[in-house]
Amino acid sequence: MYWPTGAPRVYSASSNKSSKNQTIDSNDEAKQYHESKGDDDFRKNISKFFFQKVKEIKKISQHDPESGSSTPAIQDNCTSSVKSIDQDCQSPHFSTRQNSEEISCSYLDDQPLLSLKVSRSGHLFAVITSVGLTVWQTKPTAILAVFVRSKKSLMSYGSNVSLLMRPDSTIFVILTTYGYLITYTLATNPNNRVYKPLFPKSTSSQTRIQSKSSGTRSRVEDGVLWGPGEGDGAREMSINFRLVIQVDAGAVKALALDDELIVATKEPAAVQCIKWVPDSSGSQTSTVLLSKMDWLPNKTSIIDLIHDCPMNLSAWITSDGKAYAVQKFKDTKNVETSHQMFRGFCFHTPTSSGKFAIKAAINARFSLIAIGCVDGTIQIYTAKDYIGNIPPSHTNKSNVDEYTSGSITCLTYSPDGYCLFVGYEKGWAMWSVFGKPGATSFEDDNTTSQKQKEGWLLGVREAVWMGGGLEILMISPEDHRIWSLEMIRSAISNCYGPANSSRILLQTTSTIAVYRGNDLPAINAMSNESSLWHVAQLPSSYLADQWPMRYSVISSDGRYVAVAGRRGLTHYSVSSRRWKTFADEIMENEFQIRGGMCWHQHILVAAIEAERVYQLRLFSREADLSTSSTLHSETLPAPIVLITPSGDDSLLVYTYDNILYHYIFTQLSGELRIVQVGQIAFHGIVRSPARVRGLSWILPEDESFYDDPSLEVACATVLFLVDGKLVLLQPFLNEESELRYDMRVIAQNIEYYALTKEPRRLTSLDQENGLYISSVDKDNPKTNMVTESCLTNSLWMFEGAEIKGWINFQDVLQSTYSEISREIPPMVSIPVDFYPLSVLLERGVIVGLESELVQRRDTNFSLFKLAIRTQLFIPHVLEFHLSRSDHFAALNLAQKYQNLNYFAHSLETLLNNILTREVDSNTIPEKSLLPQIISFLSLFPQNLDIIVQCTRKNEIRSWNFLYKFLPPPQELFDESLRKGSLKTAAGYMLVLQSFGEMKISHDQFNRLFLKAKNEGDWMLCKELADFLIALDQSGATLCKAMEMLELKSPKQESKQANICSP
Hints:
Layout: E1 2-4, E2 9-11, H1 39-42, E3 46-47, E4 82-85, H2 97-110, E5 115-118, E6 124-128, E7 132-137, E8 142-148, H3 151-157, E9 160-165, E10 171-176, E11 180-193, E12 196-197, E13 220-221, E14 224-225, E15 235-247, E16 251-256, E17 260-265, E18 270-275, E19 285-289, E20 302-308, E21 313-318, E22 323-328, E23 342-348, E24 357-363, E25 368-373, E26 378-382, E27 392-396, H4 402-405, E28 408-413, E29 419-424, E30 427-432, E31 437-440, H5 446-451, H6 455-458, E32 462-466, E33 471-475, E34 482-490, H7 498-502, E35 505-507, E36 511-515, E37 533-537, H8 540-546, E38 551-554, E39 560-564, E40 570-573, E41 578-580, H9 585-588, E42 592-600, E43 603-610, E44 613-620, E45 632-636, E46 640-646, E47 650-655, E48 659-668, E49 671-681, E50 692-698, H10 712-715, E51 717-722, E52 725-733, E53 739-747, E54 752-755, H11 764-768, H12 781-788, E55 795-798, E56 802-806, H13 809-816, E57 828-831, E58 835-840, E59 845-855, E60 862-872, H14 874-883, H15 887-897, H16 903-920, H17 930-937, H18 943-952, H19 956-962, H20 969-978, ...
Helix pairs in contact: 14-15, 14-16, 16-17, 16-18, 18-21, 20-21, 21-22
InterPro entries: Ric1 (IPR040096), RIC1_C (IPR009771), WD40/YVTN_repeat-like_dom_sf (IPR015943), WD40_repeat_dom_sf (IPR036322)
Keywords: Membrane
Domain RIC1 C-terminal alpha solenoid region: 875-1044
């Protein structure tokens, strides 16, 4: 559900040589350079923000070189010593002004970046070179602090290798080539700002066009309209040296957690845990030898390790190519021996050298662990529990070989878990959570990319997600630039609901895009024109303060859109193209969306959290956004996981205390309210409410509870999407007449689903396009049956590689009842070569998107462009019915879509799919499905044209197999001629000629030629003449045919005209 768009922004650091009075002699670990002027003079320095492919010139922020703190020495007597070195070993009187100046200038100019890390909040990121550390702010993207190590430090401890950042970004750790760990602290002054933007060539103070929105707020300050997340400016920060940790055993890899630093050593192979702050007993370190861990084999060492906080799970990769899921006991005091501090289970064992694990990533949202292998494949496993039940899920493989891609360098999941980004030595690729290939750099022209020096296409060293997943930062091997590639995300990934799954809503860093194909004629909805998108820029005032955007939702009729960022919300009318925002910043910052949003007609329902108070608030689109204009507030006892509308007037609310609340919309005293009419507790059924991503319920087709909504809770079947599993909960009464639920997993690896319950009312546009049978006689059982089988009770889901669905979900409910316990009915499967986003039932198509890499010779950069993709699902559903010999259901479905302009093409696709598959698989005639398909096609007047079109689009070897089940081509030709389908008859002439039956068909050919002449179809006459010339290049056959038809050449016509003239 992620697609890259446009060209990446490029950030780099360059610096003028520092003047002598800015260079400070110090006995600290490294020389720091700062501005000695006051804040007023410092703010006059120019910082140019370009959002194209240019370098950004940044000044080094101010900090005190003597403020570095130190901690007592750390000694571990168990295996190896870990020593603290408070300062560099250089003499206090040793001046390195000139050398440091040279190092600083070379560092900022063209030093390759070695490592990239982002903070947990995403507000800053840091990079290192071999000699220094640079801290950047995310928005506005600017350098906040630089620390350049001294030459003496580099000689003593080695150059930088990798960077670690504590999740709260207060401590940085650099691992050096000599195995030292150098730690730094980051100090922040929240009141000071270090940059003032200046646009010297601009003649207008307003540099961006402000979107239309209500309210009086505006973020125009100092003549600048701030962009996304730039409202707070660039904060003042400084890096201070803390200490150097010497690990005698040799640090190989390290992991920075909230409470401690975990270091993997080589000789001996061990894991050392170093707390940031000593505990109450004064202990700060602990060490465990790998040889003492009984779940690890002997003579093995750790080559990589990662940790995921939400799952409290680590993944270790060992030197023998295996991968382990590891947990550390929180209360280590109760652990009898030190080697029991960690518990792990091996879940990946290589079967060959190419399957050795080298990288890992954890997806907490879907409980997945991805393992990158030596051969470039990614093995995905499902973490079902913490006791070693981690079976394989699926495998991702790049569309290029290992030589083209190189080894895997990084794996990282998007924050919502829906996308996996994989960096290679020579490019990168993206997959959806369950394996659908997405955008990739391997589609580029490598020569062009090298010529244009586009490192982001040539290889990735490290990558991190920013802005809630709407941007990704990359660094390339041997490159000093940082690439920021913007992403487009589907709204269903962060705000799950029926409206977002039926209508396509896309979100970028600063815009939303609404797909208009649902409201256009059917044939226009299948085009790839940009006019199908309604694009709106988010209000600049809201975007500047509340970036990144976290939630977006569209109404079921497509008229309204709501967007929520860090705090507050804003909503938009598609017809008027106007936004509404809070005029008061205090009101906007008073709450944040937690649990999503949904629309009920023109009423926006928002699940909010305000100072640990959890509420549902109703806002009217017709009223201004303010606290006083809130229609209704409903307080709940626990945080909300998700909200979703159901039916015409119901609202389902699921909370973290595992309770599903049922509300209805009603008018009380002339005002709209929501009233709770029931609730269901799922204690012991749903283990982790936070993992629930989607929710629906299905009511039985019984009118007994229509007048009393409180009865719906006891008879509703609940559908959950948990960790990619579609779980069905059906109510029943036990022997004590207590309500219980029977749970059954009905589908696996589901990224999203769409449940269609009721047919919507037809618009005049739908009736003009023949989307349904225009006249339905309720008293006629035949037409009534056709109406009931119009996919209105179907369930569609995307399973990573293909769309699957149940045509009638009521059959699934009947089969899953505990009294019946039948097998679940089979699903229809529709393979797609793009990422599908919506199933348009009324049009019979699946709509999706894909990114295309564009490289032009007239530009010096590459970019990604978004393309709409569509695919008919009608042929696949018809094949599903016919393969089960359910001709009545197939006929009902065909009658539903028979008035569409592309219905004949759907039938042709059906025939072509079956023919191609059976010819390729050498299906014997007795088991062929073609006889049923041909018999079904004979019910429609286009059948002759469908057959001949399918014939001409296939190879000759397929013709013999097809015509085993058809009448002779001569009969098909005669029938086409009788019906007046001249072009169809001409198509069968080609078949006759290919079968060698042309000699017996001259008569029919002359009849066709004569009929085309009499009807004035001169284009067909020309094609027939060309056909005869191809058969006899001498022209004798053509002349003979013209004589028989009494057709004269132009010369003869001219002579006759001259004779007849007076």
